[in-house]
């Protein structure tokens, strides 16, 4: 048998269909030229022909016909007496083309080694194509199907079956994944580990929120509105500073949408992360004021050299400025680049310190907060100032609910 059938090899490499055929042919040719060099020392007078349609490979050897007993190089020359045994019409000086019996000349072991080398080269090509594909998509949103959930990471497959990893550190705290569900994330980086291309995804990156905004807000996609900066505490709160290049467009209104229609989809994707969209401004004092949303500021003292600002607010606004676990003020500092300290306008700080009930929405059910608001209790201290019996009488809440409610509120004051 003068040729080795490679149809099986082609089927093995069908998954490499994103590799163009000329490149695949060149790789196969190189592999068998390597076998030729190992056996003969040179491949200069050999032609390797790969038939893409039939899936086979042929090797032809070229030798110059010389006079009998005038042979100097057995690799490139053949005596006339041997040449006419192949074809009687040959004469001295002509080139003789002879098909090489691959299995006879190389043996099964060499052929098997060649196929293994070919598989390795194809895998390298696939790896390089995968790296190039995802390096060009760093910062873009991709979607994939959850294939495996581990303690420290989630394995996700893209539409081509390529593996992507979503580490625990890049997941929103409230994320919970099940095998088979579809997940969106942003490509954070591509790295090589043990000669394998590892695609790292993120759902906590500010870029993820930025790309979600591009999808939901056409004005951002079209470039009419620019996202100047995003800071996040994933799953808790995010602040987005936007600017419009068209005076007719309100950037904040465009991002939020009619009755919050545009922002709600993003909030759901981010597991109910609160998103504050503010107007960007070059006026630092105004930017600090806007960054502390939803709190309303009375006055600001700024030290531009030390990038420090003292912010003064009414007592009932302090808790809003700081936020639960200090998240609001931390994000305001990151957004503005200033170290912000909050002060109350009154000297009686201990008595005036209070926390809005809305700040407890992740621990206290919404209907309980609404019930308390209906009886005039919209802050933590206004609830704690009432006795359990009075709260039970005025709200019709159960004793156990009131006890849990006061425990949660007291614990927060103790932390503060």
UniProtKB/TrEMBL annotation:
Signal peptide as annotated in the record: none
UniProt-annotated location(s): Cytoplasm
Gene3D superfamilies membership: 3.30.300.20, Nucleic acid-binding proteins, NusA, N-terminal domain
Pfam families referenced in this protein's UniProt entry, alphabetically: KH_NusA_1st, KH_NusA_2nd, NusA_N
Alphabetical keyword list: Cytoplasm, RNA-binding, Transcription, Transcription antitermination, Transcription regulation, Transcription termination
Residue ranges of every copy of the S1 motif domain listed in the record: 139-204
Keyword Cell membrane on entry: no
Family: Belongs to the NusA family.
Subunit comment: Monomer. Binds directly to the core enzyme of the DNA-dependent RNA polymerase and to nascent RNA.
Protein name (Swiss-Prot/TrEMBL): Transcription termination/antitermination protein NusA
UniProt source species: Ferruginibacter yonginensis
């Amino acid at each position: 048998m003068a040729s080795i059938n490679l149809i099986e090899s082609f089927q093995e490499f069908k998954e490499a269909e994103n590799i163009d055929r000329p490149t695949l042919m060149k790789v196969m040719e190189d592999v068998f030229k390597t076998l030729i060099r190992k056996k003969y020392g040179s491949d200069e007078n050999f032609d390797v022909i790969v038939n893409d349609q039939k899936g086979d490979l042929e090797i032809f050897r070229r030798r110059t016909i010389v006079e009998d007993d005038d042979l100097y190089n057995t690799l490139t020359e053949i005596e006339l007496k041997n040449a006419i045994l192949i074809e009687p019409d040959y004469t001295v000086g002509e080139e003789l083309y002879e098909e090489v019996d691959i299995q006879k000349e190389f043996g099964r072991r060499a052929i098997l080694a060649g196929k293994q080398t070919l598989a390795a080269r194809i895998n390298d090509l696939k790896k390089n194509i995968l790296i190039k594909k995802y390096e060009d998509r760093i910062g873009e949103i991709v979607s994939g199907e959850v294939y495996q959930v581990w303690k420290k990471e989630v394995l996700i497959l893209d539409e081509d079956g390529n593996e992507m990893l979503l580490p625990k550190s890049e997941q929103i705290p409230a994320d919970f994944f099940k095998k088979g569900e579809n997940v969106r994330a942003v490509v954070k980086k591509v790295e090589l580990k043990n000669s394998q291309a590892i695609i790292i995804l993120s759902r906590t990156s500010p870029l993820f929120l930025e790309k979600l905004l591009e999808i939901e807000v056409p004005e951002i996609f079209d470039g009419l509105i620019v996202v100047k900066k995003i800071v996040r505490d994933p799953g808790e709160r995010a602040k987005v500073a936007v600017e419009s290049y068209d005076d007719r467009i309100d950037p904040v209104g465009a991002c939020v949408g009619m009755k919050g229609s545009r922002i709600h989809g993003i909030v759901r994707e981010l597991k109910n992360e609160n998103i504050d969209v503010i107007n960007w401004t070059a006026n630092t004092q105004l930017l600090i004021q806007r960054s502390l949303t939803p709190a309303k500021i009375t006055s600001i003292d700024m030290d531009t050299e030390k990038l420090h600002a003292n912010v003064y607010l009414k007592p009932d606004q302090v808790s809003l400025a700081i936020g639960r676990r200090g998240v609001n003020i931390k994000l305001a500092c990151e957004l503005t680049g200033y170290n912000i300290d909050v002060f109350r306008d009154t000297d009686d700080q201990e008595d005036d310190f209070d926390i809005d009930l809305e700040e407890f929405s992740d621990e206290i059910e919404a209907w309980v907060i609404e019930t308390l608001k209906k009886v005039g209790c919209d802050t933590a201290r206004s609830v704690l100032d009432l006795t359990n019996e009075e709260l039970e009488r005025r709200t019709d809440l159960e004793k156990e609910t009131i006890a849990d409610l006061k425990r949660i509120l007291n614990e927060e004051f103790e932390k503060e």
